[in-house]
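Next comes the chain:
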Amino acid sequence: MITIIKEINLQEFNTWSGATDTVKHLTSEELETIEMNIIEIYPNGLTETQLNDILWFESDMIAEWLGYNEFEEIINR
């Protein structure tokens, strides 16, 4: 198996499925904050699938990083 590593900004990442729904509610500044948190948790990087899964399935954790109690608050602002 071959491993390909590339660096990208979170704003440039092509999400799919539920992650796309999460990202559409976020500002550029919020994406930068999320990116910093992900870099801190995964200093050696992560796969595209791992990143997409965080954006898809961990929306409440993302909300907490941004100072909200749950992602629904971001959707309803």
